Model the fold of this input.
Amino acid sequence: MVEVVSTNWQNDYARKLEDYAVLGVPEYWIVDYLGIGGREYIGKPKQPTITICTLVEDEYQKKLFRTDDLLVSKIFGELRLTANQVFAFGH
Done:
């Protein structure tokens, strides 16, 4: 599951995350290409961030990716993209 963050970012980072965990979605990506999410979710300074959430038992483990970080996905193990490459697709 991939969500692109909108101005209603609280839903993407909190509510949907809880819903998807209950549904057993094994991996959830939050693509915040504008860096508008709360600092508690994307850190400080706020910047474009991809958060990959991996379901472990009934809770998500979150890993943040920025700039030239190579994305790490259990679902897409062969994927070889950086965060910046994903952000560039929309431009």
The mean pLDDT is 91. The CA atoms of residues 5 and 16 lie 11 Å apart. The first strand starts at residue 2 and ends at 4.
